[in-house]
Amino acid sequence: MHSSSYRRGVTFSIAQAAEHSGLSIDTLRYYERIGLVDPPARDAGGRRSYTEEDLSWLVFLTRLRTTGMPIRMMREFAQLRRLGSPTAGRRKQILLEHRASVRERIAELQSCLDVLEYKISHYSQLEHTFVEGITA
């Protein structure tokens, strides 16, 4: 689901929000409890009712978590977001710092992948030599 498929005014249950964001219902409640997510509106039955904007924010939070941003930093970002445009510079700085961290992690993983590729190639050569030695 992407934002162009939403209709204005449509709301989503906590189960739908969880499915869309890839978070569990428990994690959604936890994010609300620690201030990463504003408490959503409630429907007539008292159930959480998420908007398209809420879902977009949840997806963004999920991406930050997936890239390893600490909860502490996510909370700062969420608090600044609530304060609006005057905090754009600090929010951008947080993202720039996190991007640098993500790039370092990608380089580290690439180095690890290179070693794995080398070892796989090495063992393929050993297997080939062993099999040819038996059949020769």
From TrEMBL:
Cited CDD domains: HTH_YyaN (cd01109)
Annotated Gene3D superfamilies: 1.10.1660.10
Cited InterPro entries: DNA-bd_dom_put_sf, MerR-type_HTH_dom, MerR_fam
Family matches, as SMART domains: HTH_MERR
Keyword hit for DNA-binding: yes
Residue ranges of every copy of the HTH merR-type domain listed in the record: 11-80
Keywords: DNA-binding
Signal sequence range: none
MF annotations from Gene Ontology: DNA binding; DNA-binding transcription factor activity
SUPFAM superfamilies named among the record's database cross-references: Putative DNA-binding domain
PANTHER family linked to this entry: HTH-TYPE TRANSCRIPTIONAL REGULATOR ADHR, REDOX-CYCLING DRUG-SENSING TRANSCRIPTIONAL ACTIVATOR SOXR
The protein's name in its UniProt record: MerR family transcriptional regulator
Species per Swiss-Prot/TrEMBL record: Saccharothrix coeruleofusca
